[in-house]
From TrEMBL:
Keywords: Signal. Residues 1-19 form the signal peptide. The keyword Signal applies. It comes from the Eukaryota. The lineage of its organism: Eukaryota, Haptista, Haptophyta, Prymnesiophyceae, Isochrysidales. The keyword Signal applies. This is TIR domain-containing protein.
Length: 413
């Protein structure tokens, strides 16, 4: 018995050490202007900086990850999540009242949930600032924004989708997920007392690829075949952003060191491309693949390429290598940086600012603006933190009931 207790204690200690090391290694969000962590603040009478509104069936795992990652990136951030904080399903409106910003996690079924609709209507009635996070992966219960809007009651659509709320897509790849998380953090900070006078708050995370100064130390030529529609535009963008890359658009690769294979719904519609890819593989020319995810540029699910790509190339292992996703908006600079690294770009020498300047320009051009049209009194003053008459919230923080059972919590679905 003693040995079992000792063993359990050792396992616990090892787990604690591993967790502590992970926390220590996770960089935190910084203000671009000062390179210092932002100062958290919360309105009088409020309990949580952020409330995570979601449906369990298609959003539980994602919002659980959002909460844990946000609290690592922003230590001290208080986030309401039903599995952790729900005491009484009948008090949803009061939980909304005590939260500074409300996150709507948009996934299939969200707008059909009775309790999610309670949270949504309460948020709008109380003029709470909102941030929209979209699940876009169909395999995870996601859909296009248009399809998700179609599930929303008509009387709510304008207030949710046409008010300029901060919006981002939930990503599962770490480098892109950080961008989504920074969008959420910025929205939360802009609604806090310390930053009410700001209209934007650029953030960074140490080590993120889009903030690293990259350049090509070795002579690098990227071939963008004329048979691959869209490849030249992307290749030119990479070359413009990072110093030292030459782009060739000749009919044949010639002296090129790499070939860019740009994949969208129209890929391989030109029969020449398949032959060129086959020849490049035979010649050991390194192929860097970019998977377009922007619907406006022919973006599609990767599975579609197994239908449109010649079977000979698939059987030969073309897709055994990783294709970098190309996302629009705020995620686009990350796509460019990762593609540049695949092409051999390395950290620029200390003091070199050329690639940083180019990447900053790319961010400015491609990122969607964050416009929060909100009634900030609701999140930063005591007047609307309570019952609308200047009083405090009706739920006392000091009189917290024991956590609700799993059965009661599932009523939230």
């Amino acid at each position: 018995m003693i040995s079992l207790v000792v063993f359990a204690l050792v396992v616990f200690l090892i787990g604690a050490v591993v967790a502590a090391r992970r926390v220590a290694k996770v960089p935190t969000v910084r203000l671009v202007s000062t390179k210092q962590p932002p100062e958290l603040s919360i309105g009088t009478g409020l309990t949580w900086h952020l409330f995570l509104s979601h449906i369990w069936s298609t959003g539980q795992d994602a919002v659980g990850n959002i909460k844990s990652e946000l609290q690592l990136l922003v230590p001290g951030l208080k986030i309401f999540l039903d599995v952790d904080d729900l005491k009484d399903i009948g008090s949803l409106e009061e939980y909304i009242q005590r939260s500074q910003v409300i996150l709507f996690f948009l996934s299939c079924g969200y707008f059909r949930s009775k309790n999610c609709l309670r949270e949504i209507r309460s948020s709008l009635e109380q003029s709470k600032p909102i941030v929209l996070v979209q699940e876009a992966d169909p395999a995870k219960g996601g859909a296009t924004l248009q399809a998700l809007r179609g599930e929303c009651p008509e009387d709510l659509q304008q207030d949710i989708f046409e008010k300029g709320w901060a919006h981002t897509t939930y990503m599962r790849v770490e480098e892109f997920q950080r961008v989504s998380l920074k969008t959420i953090v910025e929205a939360v900070l802009l609604c806090s007392p310390n930053y009410l006078n700001q209209t934007s708050l650029p953030l960074c995370v140490p080590g993120e690829p889009e903030s690293q100064p990259l350049a090509f130390a070795k002579e690098t030529m990227l071939w963008a075949s004329p048979a691959n529609a869209g490849a030249q535009v992307l290749a030119d963008e990479i070359a413009t952003t990072f110093a030292g890359l030459t782009v060739s658009t000749a009919e044949a690769p010639g002296p090129a060191t790499h070939m860019l294979l740009y994949l969208n719904e129209d890929s391989f519609s030109d029969e020449r491309l398949a032959e060129q890819v086959k020849q490049a593989r035979e010649d050991k020319l390194k192929i860097v693949m970019a998977h377009e995810n922007d619907p406006d540029l022919g973006g599609c699910q990767f599975s579609k390429f197994f239908e449109t790509t010649p079977q000979e190339l698939i059987a030969d292992g073309l897709y055994k290598d990783l294709a970098r996703p190309c996302f629009p908006g705020r995620h686009h600079p990350v796509s460019l940086a990762l593609l540049a690294k695949d092409l051999g770009a390395t950290p620029a020498r200390s003091g070199s600012v050329a690639s940083v300047s180019r990447l900053s320009a790319s961010i400015a051009e491609r990122s969607s603006s964050l416009v929060l049209k909100i009634s900030r009194r609701s999140s930063a003053t005591a007047t609307t933190a309570g019952d609308g008459t200047g009083g405090e919230a009706t739920v006392s923080v000091d009189s917290v009931e024991p956590a609700a059972s799993a059965e009661a919590a599932q009523e939230h679905v």
